[in-house]
Write a structure and sequence with these properties.
By secondary structure, the protein is an alpha+beta fold. The chain has one domain: Creatinase/methionine aminopeptidase superfamily (Creatine Amidinohydrolase, Alpha-Beta Complex), CATH 3.90.230.10. It contains four helices and 15 strands. Strands 8-7-9-14-15 form a five-stranded antiparallel β-sheet. Strands 1, 2, 4 and 5 form a four-stranded antiparallel β-sheet that branches. Strands 3-12-11 form a three-stranded antiparallel β-sheet, with no helix packed on it. A hairpin with a 2-residue loop joins strand 4 and strand 5. Helix 1 packs antiparallel against helix 2. The two termini are about 30 Å apart. It binds magnesium ion (2 copies).
Length: about 250
């Protein structure tokens, strides 16, 4: 069942979204060659706690950090640690915060210094695919309209859409029904209604869409070692169209 949020609940989710968005911006401002992913994690955790909020990922199914930090061929769920970023890396940062029981969830991929033209094109296409997916989130549209729009942009740019990990409903839990794939046939799936809130999160690979997990039990990488990018927002369907909640 897809839970509908009341206007009061969406107001609370705006605050969770704001905290998440600011944390992500602060992390992005600190991304540079030489910084460790653990140092970025500390920045996010300190900001989230300073707002009286709680990091959403820390302890989630045993995840050990506030951020997921995924470098280059890492797709999602990378664990912050002593790895120092290098010029030319791309870093996907996924961040979530809980305010008064409501969740925000957002991700961005940041360039570390100057990156290759391919890396820049991948990041740009992933961000554009998210924008295109969000634009479909109006009443009476269908769930798979979102993924279809994402897929068209990503594949149109020559990249591939990860299949094994998808977006999700979000509210008083980080993961609610429905699953929100980043691919599929337009016109299919549940009808969108005001009060639905989804985290839409294209994970786009420069090479093939296949992924595998590393032995740490968390980090997901591209099977062919190609670069991957990840952008995510938490979005409410309203009478007037989509409202992005993970903004400042
Ligand atoms: Mg996320
Ligand atoms: Mg998510």
């Amino acid at each position: 069942m897809i839970l509908l949020k009341s206007p009061v609940e969406i107001e609370m989710m705006r605050e969770a979204g704001r905290v998440t968005a600011v944390a992500l911006r602060l992390v992005g401002e600190a991304v540079r060659p030489g910084v460790t992913t653990k140092a970025l994690d500390v920045i996010a955790e300190e900001y989230i706690r300073s707002q009286g909020a709680t990091p959403a990922f820390l302890g989630y199914h045993g995840f050990p950090a506030t951020l997921c930090t995924s470098v280059n061929e890492q797709v999602v769920h990378g664990i912050p640690g002593n790895r120092a970023l290098k010029e030319g890396d791309i870093l996907s940062v996924d961040c979530g915060a809980i305010v008064d029981g409501y969740f925000g969830d957002s991700a961005m991929t940041f360039p570390v210094g100057t990156v290759s033209a391919e890396a820049q094109a991948l990041m740009d296409a992933t961000q554009r695919s998210l924008v295109a997916g969000i634009a479909t989130m109006r009443p009476n549209m269908r769930l798979y309209d979102i993924g279809s729009a994402v897929q068209q942009v990503a594949e149109g740019a020559g990249f591939s859409v990860v299949r094994e990990y998808v977006g999700h409903g979000i509210g008083r839990s980080m993961h609610e029904e429905p699953q929100v794939p980043n691919f599929g046939q337009a016109g299919r799936g549940a009808q969108l209604k005001p009060g639905m809130v989804f985290a839409v999160e294209p994970m786009i690979n420069a090479g093939g869409y296949e992924t595998r997990s590393l032995d740490d039990g968390w980090t997901v990488v591209t099977a062919d070692g190609s670069l991957s990018a990840h952008f995510e927002h938490t979005i409410a369907v309203t009478e007037d169209g989509p409202e992005i909640l993970t903004v400042e």
